[in-house]
Predict the structure.
Amino acid sequence: MIKTTYVIGHRNPDTDSIASAIGYAALKQQLGDKTVIAAMAGAPNPQTRYILDRLNIPDPLFLADVHPKVRDTLKRQPVTVDRQASAYEALELFNGSGVRVLPVVDADNRPCGMLSLLRLSESYLLPSPDKLRQVTTSLQGLARTLAAVCAVGTLCDTAMTLNLFIGAMLEESFSSRIDGHDPRQLLIMTGNRRTIQLAAIERGVRVLVITGGHPLEEGLLHQAAQQGVTVLLTPHDTATAAWLARLSTPVSFLAEQEFAEIGVDKSLTALRQKLLGPNVSAVLALEGDGTLAGVATKSSLLAPLPYRLILMDHNELGQAVPGADSVEIAEVIDHHKLGNSHSNSPISFITSPVGSTCTLVARRYRECGIEPEQKIAALLLAGILSDTVILKSPTTTAADQQTAAWLEERSGMVAADFGRDIFAASSSLKNYGSADRVVGADFKLFTHEKYSIGLGQVEVIGFDEFYGMREELLNALAEVKRRDNLFIAGLMVTDITTETTLFLVEGHTRIAHVMEYPQLEPHLYELKNVMSRKKQMVPHLLKILAKV
């Protein structure tokens, strides 16, 4: 199986997250892996939107979640049987395909029943005594199953139930056997026995089948037409024809009318629950329009998924796209603290305490001896400038500075000018549209022992807008804290010109006693010379949590 590999950053992605994903996917493709696709777990924030638009780079594929779905493990060419097909044709399908369940479909490929090999076998091997002679069929289906030629009458596709009698005895004995039966419910099968043929025609039976490839003489043909008797001529011998006649029943009469079904967009968890139901061996998977997509069985739950992930700018599954814990992780490239869970097999894990994941991606280009395209070089440079706040953040390393210089040459950009343009175009909180989007644009969850905290960060030029939105932002933080059951929820509003952060926090009241930074007012702290969430704010909060 050829798997698609999605290169994807964390939830609520920032510029570094999206830029590194696009850049690394481009590198993989240049190395010859065309199955790699850049993806994102959330919409670009205003800063990222400005950069992508300026560089004319399309958005990565948006993946709201990667929870395994029914469609991911489904074989798209199911073996089906038409509702008008005969039991004999169904048996041929069972034998030829090796399946044990056949969906019965109509002309529009919509399921109308489920036929199992077990039920079909029971119908013919264990019939009730009062139904030993009964054959439910249509004249059209009977003729098709017997490979018969219609000598007299019209073949209709209306199903009927007939009583089958074999004319293999003297006429007197045969006539006594069929006396008392409604002749229009009789299916008489005989060879070249003229007396039996005549007796059946004179009684006006519904169907007369002449076996062994024998014809019916002209006079009897004319008499059969007058009596309304349909005459079929089959090449099979009588024993074979009798067996085939019983198998001419349309499958719509044999199939279970109630069956388990599920949409292809439903999760494998939902499929598992259905398959655990009583007497459920298979579930029919349906497209959105109700047509059949495939048949799911318990083996579908074990089928390999057609995609895997490369995690960028994060390694904790709590920050990953929903469903990542159920998907193969092929690689990780990150510059944060380790918090990943164990993998089932060895993977490539690249981590380094640099200021930006884009620095690590650019390093991979250089290690592979590949020059990034000009737009990709500019995008990676933008990621570094964003995450290091134009190389002024405490997280900035010599590697970031050297890589930025290398990308400057290949992008045709001046890093300082490009960085100022980026922050000038995206520093207004009004660009986010609402307080909820300001808080959620770059919001990350962190866990320390029994505590879960959430921190968002936005970069601004001046705090005037912040003070105008302060109450709305605090309300948004309170909602996030409640929704995600957090110990504290905070927002870092960082002024890149003064290198000062205002920290708005909703959480435990005892935080104020151990915060170690000036409290300007309830819920608000001033953090001078603090610009980095990763290197300054998160370690500080994790330290003071032990004091609360």
Summary: The mean pLDDT is 92. The chain has three domains: 4-68+306-426, 87-253, 432-545. The longest strand covers residues 451-460. The chain is about 35% helix and 20% strand.
